[in-house]
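Hey all, sorry for the wall of text incoming. These are the two entities for the joint prediction.
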Amino acid sequence: MLADTEICVFDAYGTLYDFGSAVARHRSAIGSSAESLTEMWRSKQIQYTWLRNSMGAYAKFWQVTGEALDYCLAAHGLSDRSIREALMTAYLALEPFPEVPATLAALKRSGMRLAILSNGNPEMLEPMVAASPVSDAFEAILSVESVGVFKPDAKVYRLVEARCGVKPGKVCFLSSNCWDAHGAAHFGFPTVWVNRGGAPDDGLPGTLAAQVKDLSQLPSLLGVS
Amino acid sequence: MLADTEICVFDAYGTLYDFGSAVARHRSAIGSSAESLTEMWRSKQIQYTWLRNSMGAYAKFWQVTGEALDYCLAAHGLSDRSIREALMTAYLALEPFPEVPATLAALKRSGMRLAILSNGNPEMLEPMVAASPVSDAFEAILSVESVGVFKPDAKVYRLVEARCGVKPGKVCFLSSNCWDAHGAAHFGFPTVWVNRGGAPDDGLPGTLAAQVKDLSQLPSLLGVS
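and here's what came out:
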């Protein structure tokens, strides 16, 4: 299935770009609850996107990210506005995970096409990619913004064929978010779950094609190394 | 707004019926991770419903509840099948929270109409209500099953007018789940959040009419005590 891949389509946050390390830089300002805060933030942020999908109430990911952070700061009794600003700013300048630049370079050398498909709105996504060392790797940076609904709605995954002209069966989709991986697999993409945290597989629809620990295993998985 | 109420519509799990106390009876069998397990179970269960909504992949709440439990048992390294069976069985025989019988009786005496609107499928919901001391209180036990999608999709909240013939503005909706309360408020129900845990308000669409600590405050809130 993966041997037919024409294009690798990556989730951005948590898959290519490292949210945790950016936030870690602000650990001293946040104090002892830094880890709990950032874990809750990511969790609430994603939950709010699912809830807005069910409510038919799309809003830009940037807004949802801020609303989730406000909840988490309140839950942790943190009212210092400078922490909010620092964390939101950190979200705009994430770095790729260590193995990402070499992996993308190897795939490019083999002629593989590469794209991003993200919940992020273009105003937050495109500057982050442009400022990162892999800015030239992607032929398309696809945002859910154009369909007004978040993952794992099928309208999001359909953007790949609409914009890149590749049938779902020839796409290799990669996400570190298990629910995104299942959503993509349920839609019809051969999908690799980048299980960076070694979590159990979620009990969700969609059968995963493979599971890797990080992206360094991808070229050999696709037979292009 | 609440003064116009013709019918009070309650969420079931966590609002009328106490999930935590039922699971607590099995604490000794589960061991030290009992609290963490049950918290994760409820969280995953609800997340799976939101994800299935986005994927267009409805399944009975009973199935989703079991899939969530399987994830949580794996995440906690628990492989004893008797624990799974005990917890699933516990879910079928939950007790109402202590203040519920007297509250519902007071509302009934005042002529208030009462109903349940739940994610639960009828096979799990109806026996639980029938076996509980408030079995006669409700004119309708409405399940998402008939619309094939979970809360907070508007199709679920529309069931109240369709089945009970009451316009949304004359419904008082009650949920201990903040996201359900926001979903109902966004739909158009005057909504009271039963904030049993004293949590911060979620940053979600929909404006809540009121917030109470438990249901004992409801009759006076509606002016019927």
